[in-house]
Amino acid sequence: MYRVLKSEEIKNIDETAVAEQGFFYMQRAAQGLFQLIEKLITKHHQKFLLSFPKIIIFAGKGNNGGDGILLAAELLKHGYKVKVYSLVEADYYQGESGMAYQLFVQAGGKLDPILNEADLISVKHMLLKQKDSILVDSLLGIGAEGSPKGFYAKLIEYINLSRKETDSITISVDIPSGIDVDNGNVFDPAITADYTVQMGFLKLSSLFYPAKQNFGEIIVHELKYPNDLVDKESLIPIFYADKEFASNLIPERKIDGNKFDHGVGLLVAGSEGMTGAAMLSAFAALRSGLGLLHIFTQKLGAPVIANNLWEAVLHTYDDNHKTNIEAVKDLLISKKVDALALGPGMSLSGDSVNLNKNIIELLSLIQSRPVILDADAINTFVGNLEMLRAFDGQILLTPHAREFSRLFDLDISDLVPYEKAKQLYRIAKEYGVNILYKGAPTYIASSEGKIFIVPTGCSALAKAGSGDILTGLILSFTAQGLTLVDAAILSSYMHNLMGLIAADKLGEYSVLARDLVEAISPAIADLLLTED
């Protein structure tokens, strides 16, 4: 789990930290870059046997350039061959960058400034001639605005060309040059990196398309800023949920446990013509570890579910509202249900709408259970937001963009990432609900005032029924003991992983929602795999 900050927040931290020990943080940044390069040289040892790797660093005029120059000093100290090109003369570097330059000179380094067209052409020829290089992009940092111009633009083009034609590896410092740090836009030109070492915090643009594709593999190198300094500058607490965090959330299996020890879930789902949604949710819940599942479904659709789903206990409802809610009450109390999910395939018939509202009212009267609202269970509360606000239990809404817009009368789909996060933060706190906002990536806003971003971006998930499977996963993990927010994070991460696994086998065009169910087991195995 990594903290994500907006550029102005990072700059505020940097300015405060620089006043005290700025060069210390620059040294830490250089160490992170150096460690990556040593790993790459070890990993690609065979590739470099006949050609000792030449490391070429391109330094801009800011602190980002200073990071590159200090990296060069560290590499020279360890005997590596390094070439450093700069867009300014050496005496331009002052302060922390000036100190970096002095260490570079002491280590035997010589700066090669690019000051005219002849210099630029010379660099281009060198890049296209030099095979198996490691290219370091420290041209433009988070303070850069707009499209790269002049020599910066030309160098970016040449670095990308060299990466493509000479088998070179490109590493960007903090952010690939030519990327808008906050909104994920990619300017023309922009570096396409193989690796990006982000300093201290993840940058918003690295999590969003189209920029995400330019970052390559992301490595976050801690700079050890004081926690109180970070908390003071953070406007909204935003966190990125990575694989390690998701893996640690998977509920443990009890070797001597029975089905009740692994969670009892109640899925209120399905209607005539939409029984598939209920079955997909149910299969996902059961395949991901749930001990026992009760399904409460419309009577007309029940035979279809009964013929295809043997592992769940089936209950039915009809147009008798009093009987329906008494049946739910009995399930919650006598069957010891741990969590509920409402909505997949329910439709907006009068029976379904009344049932959803009655269940929320019931949960306010008896000992509440965590409840997930999906699909038409969300639409049930359009115009009834006060009912959600008044609910004093834990609730998770899982809307896509249109459902969110209908419910809250607010379209956030076209907002830039930070503004979208800000609106989700506000609404989750205002109504006391948790929100999983579907998309690429997925946002999860907690009622306690935190935003979690979960990486997504597999088109295999863009199929009918995919969201029903996500609901089943969340129900399962919540019933197994996770909080709604943790269950939403784990399920979202795993859902994307399932899409990748299924697409690897079938191709992104051909994956069906049912194929995602088959990918649950390998996805859990992948998350549980301990990396060396």
Write the layout of secondary structure elements.
Blueprint: E1 2-5, H1 7-43, H2 45-48, E2 55-59, H3 63-77, E3 82-86, H4 95-106, E4 111-113, H5 117-129, E5 134-138, H6 150-165, E6 169-173, E7 195-199, E8 202-203, H7 212-215, E9 217-221, H8 227-233, E10 238-240, H9 243-249, E11 264-268, H10 275-287, E12 292-298, H11 302-308, E13 313-317, H12 321-334, E14 339-342, H13 350-365, E15 371-373, H14 376-379, H15 385-390, E16 395-397, H16 401-408, H17 417-431, E17 434-437, E18 442-445, E19 451-454, H18 466-479, H19 484-506, H20 513-518, H21 520-528
Parallel strand pairs: 1-8, 2-3, 2-5, 3-4, 5-6, 6-7, 7-9, 10-19, 11-12, 11-14, 12-13, 14-15, 15-16, 16-17
Antiparallel strand pairs: 1-10, 17-18, 18-19
Helix pairs in contact: 1-3, 1-4, 3-4, 5-6, 9-19, 10-11, 10-18, 12-13, 18-19, 19-21
Notable characteristics:
seven-stranded parallel sheet, elongated, twelve-stranded mixed sheet, 532 residues, alpha/beta
